[in-house]
Amino acid sequence: MPSLEEQFEAFTHVFDRLKSEVARAFVGQPHLVEHVLICLFSNGHALLEGLPGLGKTLLVKTLSDALDLKFSRIQCTPDLMPADVIGTNLLVEDARGIQRFEFQRGPLFGNIILVDEINRTTPKTQSAFLEAMQEHRVTVLGESHLLEDPFLVLATQNPIELEGTYPLPEAQLDRFLFKLKVDYPTIDELSRIVDLTTAGEVHQVSRVCDRQTVADLSALVRRVKIAENVKRYALRITMASHPDSPEAADLVRQFVNYGASPRAAQSMILGAKVKALADGRYNVSLDDLRAMALPSLRHRLLLNFEGEVAKVTTDDLVGEILAKIRPS
Amino acid sequence: MTDAERIRAKVNQVRSRFFFLLLANFVAVAVCGVALVAALAGFRDEPAGRPVLLAAVAFGLTAGLLAILRTPSGPATAARVDRRLGLQQRLETAWECLASRDELDLLLLRDAAQRVHYVQTSIVAPLRFSRATKISVLAGVMLVLGVSIFRILDRSNRWGVFPLESSARAGQGASPAGVAERTTTRTAEAPKPGRAEFRQVGTLDGAPQLAGRASQQPGTAPDVSLLFPAQEPPSSPAAGKGASADRPGDASRRADASSRVVNPQLDAGAPDKRASRGSELPVTQPGRTPADLPSGAASPGSTAGAASVRKSLQQTVASPAGPSSGRTGGSRAGSAGPAAGPAQGRDRGSAENADAAFIARYARQYPAMGPVSDAVLASQGIPPGMRQYIAAYFAAIHR
Question: Going by CATH, does the domain composed of A1-223 fall within 3.40.50.300?
Answer without folding.
Answer: yes
